[in-house]
Amino acid sequence: MKKFLLISAALIVVGLLTSVNLNAQTSESKIKTLTESDFTAGTKSGVVLVDFYADWCRPCKMMKPVLEEVAGEYQSKITVASVNTDNNKNLSAKFNISGIPCMIVMKDGKEVKRIIGYREKSQLLAELAEYIK
User: Fold this and answer.
1) Where residue 86 sits, what CATH number does that domain have?
2) Into how many domains does the chain fold?
């Protein structure tokens, strides 16, 4: 019985250490969060891909890792940002967001392209080609 308790305790400690180690390996998001209060400042210069999403939206969740990759690989050419449509209803209304995910390419504060729906990374890069040259 004593041996069993020692083994159980050891497994619990290993489990805790492993979970702490896994948490230490997670990286920070490369996607900038925008809200109604900082949207204009966040999109006024350069090229910004703004992802309008909601937490409950499955295609939006599928899109996030693709956007993270694009944000990391093309950070010198394009900024990737996100706007939660549930928390920023006025901004969503201003841009007539009726379906999500909806990605809007902003160039120096002006909308230049709109991409609606999930895209594989290669498809998204093809649509962004002229902005990430």
Assistant:
1) 3.40.30.10
2) 1
